[in-house]
UniProtKB/TrEMBL annotation:
It comes from Kluyveromyces lactis (strain ATCC 8585 / CBS 2359 / DSM 70799 / NBRC 1267 / NRRL Y-1140 / WM37) (Yeast). Keywords: Membrane, Transmembrane, Transmembrane helix. This is KLLA0C17941p. InterPro entries: UCP010056. The chain crosses the membrane at residues 59-79, 91-111, 132-148, 154-173. PANTHER family: HISTONE-LYSINE N-METHYLTRANSFERASE.
Amino acid sequence: MSRLRRLDNEVLNHMLNDSDEESNSDVPDGMSFFPMDTAEQQDLIRKLELRNNLKNDKYLKILTFLYLVVCGMFILLATRIKRKNETLGPYRKILLFSAQSISCSVITLRYEFIHNYFKVRRMNFYLSSQRLNILNFVMLIFLSWIILNQGGSTALLLLCHIPHLLFIVAFIVKRLMTSLDFELGNLRALQYKFKNV
């Protein structure tokens, strides 16, 4: 939302600067806002969409890289723990489940799929982003249950709850990106609604 406010302020400042330059000519006093032509509206909306898509792509690349680094760290920790180690042995399963949960969060953050069918041994599976989020949520609940039953030091408990935090961050970022796209769609609809006024 702060990006939208900043963008609104930039547009208003741009319009006010243009009107200030024109106010020195033959513009009546007290009139500081001029309606935009239809072509100017389309050009402005296109620029806003392009800027939004570029920023979203940059943020997604950064978040994807960070998520994959954390997932790799969890896999590395899981492979370093020996199975025969009595104190850290049970955390191996937790770390592997955490890596799977982080990879599900990356997939739902990066990609939006509505219908995806695939076959495994004569069984058809239907997968969508919502179903993958539900699967990830169930996995995180299962992971929390294992962690709480396991006990251990506070540092290990905090480390094991990192996938929960990453799931929440991915959900919030995805929600903000879709709301910005929806607002830009509404702006385009308003532009066409008031086109002939």
